[in-house]
Every structure is written in structure tokens, then in C-alpha cells.
Amino acid sequence: MAQRSLTAWFTLPGLRQPAPPTPAEAASFDALLPKLGYLSKAEVKRVREAYKFADEAHLGQKRATGEPYITHPIAVAGICAEWRLDAQALMAALMHDVVEDCGVSKAELIEKFDATTADLVDGLTKLDKLQFSTKEESQAESFRKMLLAMARDLRVILIKLADRLHNMRTMGAMAPHKARRIARETFDIYAPIAHRLGLNQTFRELEDLSFRYFHPWRYAALSKAVAKARGNRRDLVSRIEGEIRAAFAKASMRVAVQGREKTVYSIYKKMREKGLMSFAQVSDIFGFRILTEEPLQCYTALGVLHQLYKPQAGRFKDYIANQKDNGYQSLHTTLMGPLATPLEFQLRTEGMHQIAEQGVAAHWIYKSRGKQASALIAQQANARWLQSLIDIQDETRDANEFLEHVKIDLFPDSIYVFTPKSKIMALPKGATPVDFAYAIHSDVGDHCVAAQVNGEAVPLRAELKSGDIVEIVTAPGASPNPAWLSFVRTGRARSKIRHYLKDLEQEESRELGEKMLAQAMRVEGLALPSLELDDPAAPIWHELADWAGSTGTEQLLVDVGAGRKIAAIIAKKLARLMAEQGQRPDALALTLGRFTETPVDRASVTIDGSEGASVQLASCCRPIPGDEVRGYLGRGEGLVVHTCECAVGKRLFQRDSEHWIRVEWAEELTRGFEVGVSLLLTNGKGVLAQVAQAVAQAEADITHIAMGDEAPALEEVEMSLLISVRDRLHLADVLRVLRRTPAVQRVSRTRP
Questions:
Q1: Sign of the C-alpha dihedral, residues 544, 546, 547, 550?
Q2: CB-based contact 514:557 (threshold 8 Å)
Q3: Is 61 helix (H, G, I), strand (E, B) or coil?
Q4: CA-based nearest residue to 312, from 282, 344, 288, 338
Q5: Where are the strands (E) in 406-492, listed by range?
Q6: What does pLDDT average to over the chain?
Q7: Is there a contact between 615 and 641 (Cβ–Cβ < 8 Å)?
């Protein structure tokens, strides 16, 4: 490897450009043709056809600079050609604005070119529609992640970056306020994406151009200072160049030496970080890059430099052994040069340098150089996400198959969706419209009744995808459903739902407790005292709550309703407190109450289906309207309703009869009730469909089905169903229809 000259060492790496073409050349295919040498003749022909199509579509359109609009797509395709992107990517680059600006449809692109190229153009068009709001850093970060998550093909992001890079290079003719907005957007969104993908050259240029248009006065002052320093230090640079050349010649090492100057923005950032008030205080604006042939030679070259100049303590980093996540590899060291000038050195191989500057685009560059270079990149670029690209390349040499497998998904644990007002929301993968609703506001989640995604109605349990536009439909009387807890993914949604249900349970338990205590007081021949705070009976309630160990009257009633306190015992204590104040039981009421009292008759609760968490139907016997039922007031479990025939309920009654109360079914019911049904079936094709059809014929709904794991291999199978019915008569109709089904040998209600 021959040594390279340092004559142009002070040119900014990202901003050095060849002599600009003439206006006529810039608007013609001739400006792009010299860069297409790596493509076949057939591929160049296809790219030319795309140019002609774009040229006709943009005919008559002008840029802000006054140039024909086609000069922009040509320049974007030229940047992509420098990255050696394939013909389809170049075609998409040439046509990336035809859908948005010229009314061309995706179907037309598929018909004239191919589906892959049309998909690339469509992906670029969708990204163009995103409306950025970079006022908040969190929004900017979400947009960056969403761009990467939405771009299913890596080439979409690369073309988009090339598009933004050319727009930034030619933004001088734009109004200052627009330039500032675009510069901020570029700095917040596109420059970090370029950095994440390892496109360091593009990253540095985008950062520098953003700084130039966002802070024009600061940029101009620093640029002037850098140019002046460059001239003043030319003799020093020549001296360092000579010493480096001599040192490597003495060591008989063939290396390439490149000069490197910090960008204006990186100098500005260093001044801010270190609190420097003047450019004169910045000493390390120059650096050098040493390129070797093999990784081991990087360490040998490091030794040569450390013998030449004294290294600064703590300023050495080994990114070859410990490469960065985006595949970057280099040795970094800072040395004290002549006149105590700090000099930064980067040492890397040619392959590492290509990855460092071009990132993921290095794949296409290496592909055009043959198998030897591909082996080199496989050896050197073994970072986690970049290694996956190389592994795929090693498995297949077909470019189309490679690109089919390379799907960019850098943030697999998150999705990014929009509100109808284009605000982006970050949610975990698998999130649902309910998660989205609670992410907006707890009131939206609590009153959510339906959702629309991209204008279409979807179930509340549907999984959202990145890019979805989600709209929540609310209703004032709606409330959270306990079933939501089975599918929500965010901790916020889960905690809000539980909090609401807990509050609801408290209120229901309070109402139940008040009702039960009133019934128990009637047994004592007394009416329940008023619960109003300003009532004379208020001190009695406070004393009663203290005696019962509750924090207040409300909590006492909740405890009674939830089964943590026994209503009869609380009623007896309350009766004694009232007697101390001169209130005596009514003789007739006392006689009637005690005459009719049995353990189960102390209170009465009516079930209509609208009860909440404080009243539950036992899962062992699953009572339905028409069953004779009774309620068990468990300790802290609320009221659990069993059928009188339930074996579990009978055992509980024998052991703890004091905790049972009378329960009745209401005349008007608000919903269906689940009941278990067991079936013995003759196994065969379509047997499940027969059962489902029979249940539907009886106007019932199946809510759950269970079969044994060995069912497919057996001649006879047992099936368990949960069916929603209105009452016992409705269940009888369902069982009668099922018995008439040919595949059903036996059917019965499940009992504990």
C-alpha cells in the first residue's frame, strides 16, 4: 500500500465535492452515468428508463434555486451510486417524488417497472408524509425510532438520507425561517439515524450543515477562525507529515496516511462542553488517520506512533477489540506533537475505514469488489446487528434474496403510532387500542368503547403496528372492563384499570354493607341510624368504627360488604350504643325479626347481572337464573353465590353457617350467565362445527372450549364448553338441541 499525500489534508471529509456540473449536465442523465460503472448494461438501461419517466413527470417544475426539479432526483441517485446501491434503489431515488408531487400511482409504477421498485418509492412517499415536531426531544427520538421501524427495506432509509443530504447542500436559496426549521429537523431526526447506521461521513456533514443554517453567525465566525488557523499552522503540518513518513519508513511499514480536520460543529460542541470562550483555546482541531492492510498492523503502527510522540494518559481507546454497536472499529490515541500540540490519531484497516465512513452501505460497496473483500468485512464487522447482514450475505450470493431477508428492525420491543392530530405515541410491541387510550389520558381509557385504526373499526384487543393512526371512541357512561386486564400490555393501562375496579369494588361493597347492616338492625328491632355527617347519630358511628377497628364509617360499611366484618355482630354493638343514648327497639319489629331469623335469612341480596366485583358467581357450580341459590360472605372475598345443590357450598355451610345470607334472582336480568356443559362426541371431520352450529341454533353463545390433547387420535372425545344462557329454561333448550346432533352421544350440565 503506497503512502498517500497530505496535500489536501485540511479539507472537511464530508464537504469535499467535485467540480459542479454545468446546468445542462446536472439536468441530464450524463451527470449520473459516470457513477454507474459498477452496474451491468441491462441495469444501466433500466435506470435510464426510470430517469426518463421522472424527467417527464417533473417537466416544468422548478426548485427554489431556479434549477429544473429533475436535478434533485439525479443528485440523490448520484449519492446512492456512491454507496453502490443496486439498480432498483437508484430507480427509486430518481422517482422518489413522482407519487407525492406528480400524482403517479403505485400501480402505474408496478406496471411500468417492477413491484420492488414501486414498494421502495411507496415507502419513501409514506416517510415524506410524516409531519415532524422537534420541539420536544422525546418526540424527536420517537420519530427516529419510528422511521427505522417503518422502513421495512434498508434501502428506503438510505435513499431518504441521500435525499435529505442533497436538500441540505442546496438550502442556500431557502427563506431563513424555513431553513432553520429544516436544519433543526435534520439535526434531531436524520443525523442521528445516519450515525446509528454507521454512515459517519454523512452524519458529520448533516450535523455541520444543520449547524450552518440553524446558527449562521456562529458558523461563519468559527469557519473564519478555522481557515485562519489552517494557514498559520501549515508549516507545523508539513513538519508532522515528514516525521510520520520517516517513522513508518524506518519501520518498513506500508500505510496510508490521511489528514483529518474536525468539522465546524464538532469544534463548537467541544467549546461548549469544555466551557471554552475563545477559538484560540481549542488546540486539537487537527488529526490523522493511519490505514493498514491487516488488523494486527494497526497495533504495530500504534507502537510506531507512541515511539515518535508521547501519548496522553487516558486518551487511548481500542474499538477494534471492543467495536461499537454499529460496527465501527478503530484504535484511537492522542499524542503530544511538536510545540506541545495535541494530535488525534485513528488507526484502522481499509475495510474498517469503509465501514466507519459508509456503515451499512459498505455492504453494497464490498459486493462490487468481489469475494476477497466480502471475507474481509465478515472478519472485521462482527457487531451484533451488522453481523446479521454479513451472515445472510455468506448464505446467499443472490442480491434479491439478500435484500428480502434484510429487514431493519432496530427497535423490536416498541411500536410507534399516531394520534389523529399526528402526535406520535411509543408503546410496547403487542399494545392494543386500550393501551393507546390510557397513554393519552386515564379518562380516555376509562370511557373507551371502540377504536378505529387507519379509519377502520377494530376490536379493542387488536394489536397495533408502527405507523397506525389510532382514534378512540368514548362514551360518558362507559367504564373499564375487567376483561381488558387479559390483553393490555402497558403498566399504565393495567394499573389504571385495577385502580378503577378497586374503587368500583369499594363503592359496591359499601352499598352492600349498608344494606346488610340495615337488615341486621331490623332483627334487633331498630332502624339504621343516619349516615349524614351533621346528624346527631354521627358520634355513634365514629365510636362503632373505633370499636370495630375500621378507619371510619365508610370503611366499616365496606368491610361488612366485603365480608371482613359480620353484620350481625356489628348490629348488636350498634344496638347497645343506641340503647345507651335512650333508643329502645320496637317490640313488634323485634318479635317479627327474631321469629323469622335463620342463618341464611339475615340479609337479602338480589342478583340481576349488573353486580360488580363485590358479588361473584361461584366458578365451581356456575349458578344461573332459576337455580336455588344462597350467598357466602367470605372473609375479604365479598359475596360468593353458590347453588344450594353445590357440594362445595354445602361443605362451607356446614362449617361456617354464620357467614351465609339469602340471595334471590331479580325479575329483570341485564345479561347472560355462563354455565358449564360436558359432551361425549363421536370423533370425526367437522364435529366441532356441528356443536357450534347447534349452540347457535339455540340462540346461545360459546365463550370457551376445552378438549384433551389426545383428542385427534381418539374415536370418542370429551369436550367441555362454557355457554352463555339467559336462565335454566334457555339451558334446557340448548341441551335438547345438542342431544339431537348426530355426533353427540351424551351431554349434561357440569356440576361440582
A1: positive
A2: yes
A3: coil
A4: 344
A5: 414-418, 424-428, 448-453, 456-458, 470-474
A6: 77
A7: yes
